Amino acid sequence: MKANLKETLLSIALLCWVMPAAAQNSLTLYGIIDTGVEYISHAGPASDALIRMPSTTGSLPSRWGLRGNEDLGGGAKIVFVLENGFAPSTGALGQGGRLFGRQAWVGLDSPFGTLSFGRQYTTTYIAVLENDIMGPAIYGIASLDAYIANARADNSVAYKIKYRGVTAMATYSFGRDATGSGNSPGEGTCAGQVPGSFSQCKDWSVMLKYDSEHFGGVASYEEERGGVNAAANFFDGRPPSPLPTSNGVISRLYLDAYAKFAGATISAGWLNRRVEVVGSSSPVITSNMFFAGARYLPAPAFVLDGEVFRIVNAVHDTRATLATVRGTYLLSKRSALYVQCAYLFNGAKSSYSVSAGGPGSTPAAGVGQAAVMLGLRHMF
């Protein structure tokens, strides 16, 4: 009897000790599994048809992660995210084989904003994710500039604050690709954090954003410094431009605005990319991308969206137009079935690929491509 009473009192005491701690802490497991089958015409130099399961993305890139916080009181809390990217087709790790290649950071959140440290998205990714109609989908902005859907940096410090619809954010990286794994498509394998070369492989970005019930807009700027093994790829079929020193610079200016009315959302924007190549016959190479899209819900469980992109690189004399449409049927709050179609018109000297779903789909110069994907997405 005494033993049972003692065990009961001990259990109650333990429960009273654990409950306040649990109330002050939160840990969430979350993720997205998104895959399907796509068909691409005129793939490769022989212009063959390609049927495959994409390895990189569908309507959204697949991932799983852990998100948590600890309440410190006074409106302050510790926050963190560990996020892994993977290919559902093979189970392989993404982002150069990293365990938490999408995000790995810890920060302090307070009424004065969030200050965080680690591997994080730059403002380029945040701006596109929250404003562009197609976002990081397989037929979208990443087909013409693969870095956009992978804009993240190692060894970074970020600060973000929101106030009455206005969001301001800034990031700075001491070495954007610390392991040299080439985790950022088109940017080479910049070593980062090299003794005696403070500017090598540095990255910084800023963003100012406004959102309201009916309209909003965003402006983002990012600058990357070159370094050993760094490069700039324009994804148009031309060889990458080496950026072996910190004097080489890649910059992107992104502007986007949207409006919502009568159940529809329309969005339009501009992306300017500028590469400064030291010692080259073309010291400055620029590209300009213009885009406009719309989203409409004809029924509560059905979403229809589409977008048109136009990119021009005057120095390379390359250009392309991409038109894409997607229909999504919501099976539940967490699951969806979708079909997305696209056609890419390449200029005479261009070899852009219609699909951002992985290597092997680039056509010969001047060849257009059609693509269609049927996919299934589940979020948890």
* Beta-strand residue percentage: over 45%
Low-confidence parts, pLDDT < 50 over ≥5 residues?
A: 8-23
Q: What order do the SSEs take from the amino end to the carboxyl end, as H and E? A: HEEEEEEHHEEEEEEEEEEEEE
**Secondary structure category:** mainly beta
> What fold name goes in the CATH topology slot?
Porin
State the major sheet: 16 strands, antiparallel, barrel
CATH superfamily: Porin
Query: What share of the residues lie within helices?
Result: under 10%
Q: How many β-strand stretches?
A: 19
Average pLDDT, rounded to a whole number, is 91
CATH arch. level architecture: Beta Barrel
Overall geometry comes to: globular
Number of domains: 1
Count of individual helical segments: 3
Indicate the topology.
Elements (H helix, E strand, L loop, with lengths): L1 H23 E19 L4 E5 L10 E11 L2 E10 L17 E8 L2 E9 L1 H9 L9 H4 L7 E12 L2 E8 L29 E9 L3 E11 L5 E2 L8 E2 L6 E13 L2 E13 L7 E16 L2 E12 L4 E13 L4 E12 L22 E11 L1
Antiparallel strand pairs: 1-2, 1-3, 1-19, 3-4, 4-5, 5-6, 6-7, 7-8, 8-9, 9-10, 10-13, 11-12, 13-14, 14-15, 15-16, 16-17, 17-18, 18-19
